[in-house]
Structure formats: C-alpha cells, structure tokens
C-alpha cells in the first residue's frame, strides 16, 4: 500500500509517481537518472539484506526522488544518501525534513566517487550505472553487506562461476570480497524513464575468501594481467603480461608452476587457483 498524501505524515510507503511529481523534475538518462516506479520491486530491495546485517546506518548512492530512501528509512535506524544532482538533493531534504531534523537522514550532495563516505553498516542502492565499477570497488573493501542494482550483464559477470562465458576479472575481484548472488531480475518497465538495458539486484555478503593471499594488490594485478590474455594458456599469459602484473622474472614463475595449471586458461581458473599461483609468482618472480 502506498500513500500520495501530504509530506511528513507517511505511515505507509510513499508512492513513486507522487515522489517524482513532488521532486518537480523528470529523470534525465544522460545523468544516469532512471527512477524506480514499481512499488513491488522497491519494497523487496531492503529485504535482500542478509538477516544478520547491521541496519544501524545504511548508505544509499543516488537517491533521486527518494523512493528507495523512503523504504530504507523504514528498515534502518539511520540513512545517509549521496546524490549528485542539486535538484534531487534539495528535494530529498524537503521531502524527508522530519527525518533530517531527527538526525535519521543525512543528504550528502556530491559525486559518490569523490565525497567522503560515512562509517556505514550496509549499502543498498539503485546505482547510477556509469559508475558501477568504480563505486563497487570503493564499497567492496569496506567489508559491509551490499545490495546493489546493476545493469544485468555487469551483475551477472560479478556473480559468475569459473568455466562460464561471463566469468572474468570482475568475478574474481568481486568474489574476493564476498559471496555474490543475483537476487532478482528487474525489467526495464520498472523504471521511468525506461532504460535501454535490463537490470539485476545483486547481494554481496562479506566473508573471508577460502584461500590465502599475502599481497592483495599483487593478487588483483595478477588476475587482471592474466584475463587480458584470456584466450591464451596461463603459461603464455604469465610470459606476456609482466608489464601489468609487475613480475620481474615471469620465466621463473613458469618454471616453478605445475604443468596442469600452465595448460589452463584464465576462464577455467577458480579464484583459489589464482591465489595459489599468485603466491607462487610472488615468491619466485617478483
Ligand atoms: C538510477 S537513479 C536511482 C534513483 C533512485 N534511488 C531510484 O531508485 O529511483 C541514480 C541516481 O544517482 C544520481 N547520480 C548519478 N551519478 C551520481 C554520482 N556520481 N554520485 C552520486 N549520485 C549520482 C542520479 O542523479 C540519480 O538520482
């Protein structure tokens, strides 16, 4: 049930279309503004947080008219929303004046890639897709649960298993930080204006990886290097990409590694296989 009623008296969830009307501006696709207008989808998003997630301070990137902000304020003690567009930032402060006054909502106007992020306990966002990768790799190292909307292909690559066509550097580097699941496919019709692409909601639950990495930066660079040569064997990948991985003696790594591993291709290497090889590479070839 949603309400189109007066601002500030909402005991039921706010109606998406009414919020867009009160914001006084339509979404501009050139500014990554595709707003959720399907209540059922918006209502489900906060429920994808893991049960054990700490809901004391939830971060939202890209608040827009505030339909998700509204649901997050119902599910969390405190919310910080980062919004780049001054019209929508001003609208959010107006629309949620009571919550701002009560210190339950902070509206940060600025670019989510530049602003200082608060000490949040979880992040739930319908992201601006043009910054999907950069913002994800700002959020992932915080080790907090994330529920994020992405372009379908991007979210599926994050969640992909070794041996599938979607599996790549993005899968390994995301899964390094947490367990990744696609919770829901969201059709274009759930947004206004309708985006050109389909979307997915992805949950990332932080956990320690099931392998050990001594030098995280080298591990991530090594994975990046080997996926630039995904059609080549690992043997040739190691040899051809020292300028990316930073190896000073790639030949020593090839000599030390198992033949079984050297014959594989990056797309068939599980994250734990990369980690084992990265440890060996750091010991023998850095
Ligand atoms: C896909 S819309 C989502 C809006 C709202 N949460 C919803 O679900 O309807 C993305 C929002 O992010 C904002 N935005 C775009 N780039 C941004 C950036 N770099 N930093 C912060 N916000 C940004 C846009 O103005 C827009 O309001």
Report on this model:
The chain folds into two domains: 2-206, Rossmann fold (3-Layer(aba) Sandwich), CATH 3.40.50; 216-285, Orthogonal Bundle (Helicase, Ruva Protein, domain 3). The protein has helices at residues 16-23, 39-44, 67-75, 86-95, 97-101, 132-139, 152-159, 169-175, 216-227, 234-240, 242-245, 250-256, 259-262, 271-285; strands at residues 2-3, 13-14, 35-36, 57-61, 78-83, 105-109, 122-126, 146-151, 178-186, 191-192, 199-206. The strands form three sheets. A seven-stranded mixed sheet has the order 6-5-4-7-8-11-9. A two-stranded parallel ribbon has the order 1-2. Mean pLDDT is 95; it is low at 5-9. The chain has 286 residues and is of the alpha/beta class. It has 14 helices and eleven strands. Strand 4 (57-61), helix 3 (67-75) and strand 5 form a beta-alpha-beta unit. The longest helix has 15 residues, at 271-285. The structure holds S-adenosylmethionine. The site of S-adenosylmethionine has 24 residues, from strand 3, helix 3 and strand 5.
